[in-house]
Design a protein that fits this description.
single chain, alpha+beta, 2 domains, globular, F-box-like_dom_sf, F-box domain-containing protein
């Protein structure tokens, strides 16, 4: 009796159970060995084998946050989804020769894998098989480094934001940002044309959806600045990589009522141009230096082939960019407890599963002085949580208010935190603007971990 005949004496259900532990490409190769093998893989009407292959090699999508919080039962074509992922893998590994349609197909597939990742259990942090598979694939691929067509730039930027700096802990050199890339992001992040009423002075498009390209530039500016910090502070940074995008991966999630994990202790990096100008503004409200600020010069003058030319950063020996690390403590409060922040709801954004949360807290810098923070977090129609908050700083007898708009990177209460832009609440022309990165830390995080660096 030949070996194929001997093998197929075994009930097909047993063979399928064995195949479920094999790599999907191995299962495909097995199906091509003979007609009997093909029938074992493709003939059954049920989707047992395809479901088990996904569960063994990825995450069970039935446990994902988008499934467990949906009022519509999951209707999942396991076979089609697995084939979609294998096809996308092939596209990613041959990124140079793929069409725009193939590129869109792969990008949407990879983002869906991130969305399907199971939330971090409170009892034990189990790594996500799906995210591990995707990270390994993206490390081998150039799909995020080719120039995409205009209509795909947001998809590429979104996946890049999730994947950025994912080797920061294993390979510090890999995570370094080139000066060209850094200055390109500076040009975008400090371009005042990118902050207006149409995008709520934050990283949004005019239709209210997240501008992932903007978020990517903000993250890049901050991450590059962290490399300039003194050695002591270089490891005080947000978690990055695909695992950090999982729901509830942030520490000290207090309660189910606080679905965004707002309450607790945070750290916040803020960056800005022309440190002396901003200090002058904070120290003496309404009295500005006679010399133009770096931000104003970059945006409105013709120096260094301006306005808004990269040469401002590469040839300007006097250019300085400041980085501050702040301690933030927040607690969830009722809306009527807020005193000065603008938290008007957008009626177009209404998710009963994620009602708006309002918060109040204190921000403290290296000088020990505190400022009051108030704001809200709400879920967008695109599944990305938005943070909006104001900061009130009393100086002498006057007050100045800073406003911030940010986006949760990944799912709710992710360890990757919130990335956005800060500016003044007045929004006058030439007002300071810059990126921030806010992330949750444990309540016993060292209280001296704040810094002011130029």
């Amino acid at each position: 009796m030949s070996s194929p005949t001997t093998l197929f004496v075994i009930p097909p259900e047993i063979i399928q159970h064995i195949l479920a532990f094999c790599h999907p490409l191995g299962v495909s190769a097995f199906s091509r060995t003979c007609r009997a093998a093909y029938n074992v893989v493709y003939s059954p009407n049920d989707q047992y084998l395809w479901r088990e292959l996904i569960i063994h090699h990825f995450d069970d999508p039935r446990k994902s946050l988008r499934c467990t919080t949906s009022s519509i039962p999951l209707c999942y074509d396991w076979k089609m989804e697995l084939q979609r992922r294998m096809m996308s893998s092939s596209i990613a590994l041959n990124a140079r020769g793929v069409s725009d349609d193939q590129l869109r197909f792969a990008l949407e597939t990879f983002i869906s894998i991130i969305d399907d990742a199971s939330p971090i259990p409170r009892s034990q942090a189990v790594p996500s098989n799906g995210l591990r598979w995707l990270a390994c694939l993206l490390h081998q691929s150039r799909i995020l480094y080719r120039q995409p067509p205009q209509e795909l730039k947001q998809l590429v930027a979104r996946l890049s934001v999730y994947f950025l700096f994912s080797d920061a802990d294993e390979d510090e050199e890999y995570a370094l940002i080139s000066s060209g890339r850094r200055n390109e992001s500076r040009c975008f992040a400090y371009d005042l044309r990118n902050y207006n009423m149409g995008n709520n002075w934050g990283p949004y498009l005019r239709d209210g959806s997240v501008n992932w390209l903007h978020v990517q530039h903000l993250m890049t500016v901050i991450w590059a600045n962290l490399a300039d910090l003194p050695e002591r502070w270089k490891n005080v940074r947000p978690s990055v990589g695909l695992e950090a995008t999982r729901a509830f991966s942030a520490p000290d999630i207090a309660s189910q009522r606080d679905w965004a994990g707002v309450e607790g202790t945070w750290r916040r990096y803020v960056c800005f141009m022309d440190y002396r100008f901003v200090v002058s503004l904070l120290s003496c409200i309404g009295i500005l230096q006679n010399t133009a600020s770096d931000l104003f010069s970059f945006n409105f003058s013709n120096v260094f082939r301006g306005p808004r030319n990269k040469a401002y950063f590469t040839e300007n020996v006097r250019f300085r960019e400041a980085t501050r690390l702040l301690e933030v403590k927040l607690r969830v409060v009722a809306r009527d407890k807020l005193k000065f922040s603008n938290t008007d709801d957008d009626p177009a954004i209404c998710n009963p599963l994620y009602p708006p949360l309002f918060f109040h807290g204190i921000s403290r810098g290296v000088d020990g002085n505190g400022s009051v923070i108030e704001g809200m977090v709400k879920m967008g129609n695109d599944g990305a949580a938005r943070y909006k908050f104001s900061e009130k700083v009393s100086v002498h007898d006057g007050t100045t208010q800073w406003s911030s708009e940010g986006v949760q990177v990944g799912s709710v209460a992710s360890a990757a935190g919130v990335v956005g832009a800060w500016t003044t609440s007045i929004h006058d022309q030439g007002d300071p603007v810059g990126p921030f990165w806010l992330w949750k830390v444990s309540d016993d995080f060292p209280t001296d971990a704040v810094v002011d660096y130029t």
